[in-house]
Amino acid sequence: MTTFTDDLGAEVPLPEPPQRVVSLVPALTEAVEHTTPGLIVGATDYCTHPPELDVPRIGGSKYPTAGAAAELRPDLVLANAEENRPEDVRSLRGAGIPVWVMEAPATVPAALTSLRALLTGPLAMAAGTADPAPAWLAEAERLWTAEPPPVRARAVVPVWRKPWVVLGRDTFGGDVLHRLGVDHVYADADDRYPRPKLDGLRQRFADGDADLLVLPDEPWAFTDDDGPDAFPGVPYVLVSGRDLTWYGPSLVDAHRKLSAALP
């Protein structure tokens, strides 16, 4: 028996190297399948990467079917403190299934540290390698832990519409932008995802607090015709929501792609 400790301090006992992993977190699904192909035997409906992953689906991230996950006989379930409900984690653990819970990362380095702990801990047992840290993780750490460039824009970053929801304090996406020279104006908000009124958002631009609108394509699929229409005359950029908010191997390409997309 080998016992690990997850991000929340809970013990994760593994009697054997895990060979059947169910992931409730899209970014972790991609990271694990990219690093150790074949371990994932079940995932949520929103686990869209890698696109060729062909495993049973067990519902959404917020409301997965814990019973369906248990029926897949996993050696380990991967969850996230923000994306998954505590009661689902308790249900799985109550059924005797080890669950690793990742803390919702507020920064890119925090996400990379958490990924390293998972991939060089429980999943290193499955990989059976003396050097379990994948090359993509080392490259992501190199790219994203460098000193941020000077601020070149101050942005409002909506992630939802009807009602409007924007990036606030301590968000992974906000830190991604900061490390590329773009600060977001709600970084000091009381909430991680504030819900300001549209008039208040527009006023940020009118007052000169913000000079850029950053619109990701998930969770709300903003487009040239959906989003900019609410902010006439405001400079905007459309970005990949996956590049902005997923932690995993996509971070390597995300650095290049977002750097090119942002003004």
UniProtKB/TrEMBL annotation:
Domain of life: Bacteria
Annotated coiled-coil segments of the chain: none
Designated name of the protein: ABC-type Fe3+-hydroxamate transport system substrate-binding protein
Entry-linked SUPFAM superfamilies: Helical backbone' metal receptor
NCBIfam families: TroA_like (NF038402)
Family from the record: Belongs to the bacterial solute-binding protein 8 family.
InterPro entries: ABC_Transporter_SBP (IPR050902), Vit_B12_bind_prot (IPR054828)
